[in-house]
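Hello support,

Our group uses your service weekly, and this is the first time we've seen a run hang past the timeout. The protein is Monooxygenase. I'm not sure whether the cause is the sequence or the server load. Input pasted verbatim:
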Amino acid sequence: MAYVLQVDFKMNGPFGDEMANQFSNLAKSINEEDGFMWKIWTERPETNEAGGIYIFETKETAENYLDMHSKRLASFGITDVNAKVFAINSKLTDITNGPVK
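Update from on-call engineer: The timeout came from a worker crash unrelated to the input. Re-ran successfully.
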């Protein structure tokens, strides 16, 4: 069963194209994380918020990534991180055309 990791936090930028340029190596490295399937990057410049919606193969790999990512964010001075791991209800997700089973 796949799991969703939802993360958001306050960040003073960059956003948009500048964020894409500065974080492209980070994005590539996330592809190498154990159990990682995909991520949607989120941003809300008007409230200085960023984060993402991740899908991992297992709850354990989602939680392990969250632990590592929280430490990485703390090294950037970001310590107020909102994060939750959710199981995916695959039967309902399938009805609504979700990309994971």
